[in-house]
Amino acid sequence: MAEPAQGALKTSHNGRRRWRPQWTARMALIPAMTITIVCFYGFIIWTFVISLTRSRLLPVYKFTGFDQYVRLFANERWWTAMQNIAIHGFLFIGGCIVFGYLLAILIDRGIKAEGMFRTVFMLPLSMSFIVTGVIWQWVMNPGLGLQDAVRELGWTTFEFNWIVRQDRAIYTLAIAGIWQQVGLCMALFLAGLRNVDPNIWKASRVDGIPIWRVYLHVITPMMRTVFFTVFILMSAIVMKAYDLVVALTGGGPGFSSDLPAKFVVDHILNRQELGLGAAGAFVLLCTVIAVISPYIHFELRKARDGGGH
């Protein structure tokens, strides 16, 4: 009779041991979950509620339906900002992925002074977007930047005045953004390349396959999860882009380089249009979800199907 009692005691004791770590971990997550629910989802709901009111300088809970959304969609500046974010997003994300991957491949091939090159490419990442914007504003200033320097060397017809041209100003944001973030993309891609099985390269050399074909047809498909990570990170930067616009172009000339985040902040803080700004913020969130969700679903389903095989 003593042995079963001892066994039950051990089982109960082990059960308590298993119970304590599980609930300790769950209890530790409660503060983080509470902050996430209140500060993220709570403010999303609050923003939507405010967008249904006549709020201007301060919140006023007098609901007017979707009047603010009607005003928003009739605002020409809003559509200019939405068009600009599509252009900026395509150029910025595409440029970061292409140049970051190419730089990672070059470093992965074992170039000399690899540490120095990695430091040089990662250095802009240590700067804020405000500093990056100010630097590139100097570089692109026609009177004292790159254009003036080249003309001083004798090429008097050289022009690089995109920052003051309405049809080119949006491209300057992509140039400055790529310059700052390409180092991060390079580091992520390089980490992925360094995890590739060395036997793949041995087999390709035995078969006489060109290096570029190995990268294109073998390595790149294996890096799908890294591409996915880079895409999500760069997309987040595009959607919340504000400080780079303010420091580099100010949204100008006119509103030619305006982006939705600047539109929202300007209307909330400068124009005392809290309801209209909240409507713009909620539409931007819905746009992000609509654009990114299919890609996320495709990648997660592909990873799940691949894991099943």
Present the secondary structure layout:
Blueprint: H1 2-50, H2 67-73, H3 76-108, H4 114-122, H5 129-140, H6 146-152, H7 169-193, H8 198-207, H9 211-222, H10 224-239, H11 243-248, H12 260-270, H13 274-308
Pfam families: BPD_transp_1
InterPro entries: ABC_transporter_permease, MetI-like, MetI-like_sf
Domain ABC transmembrane type-1: 82-297
Please, what is the average pLDDT?
85
The CATH superfamily is known as MetI-like
Q: What composes the largest sheet?
A: none
CATH architecture tag: Orthogonal Bundle
User: What string, H for helix and E for strand, traces the elements in order?
Assistant: HHHHHHHHHHHHH
What is the percentage of strand-forming residues?
Answer: under 5%
Q: Count every helix, treating DSSP H or I runs of 4 or more residues as helices.
A: 13
CATH level 1 class label: Mainly Alpha
Rounded Rg: 26 Å
- The coarse silhouette is globular
Tally of DSSP β-strands: 0
- Kindly name the structural category: mainly alpha
Which residue ranges are poorly predicted, with pLDDT under 50 across at least 5 consecutive positions?
8-12
How far is it from the N-terminal to the C-terminal residue, by CA?
51 Å
CATH topology: MetI-like fold
Domain count:
1
Helix content: over 70%
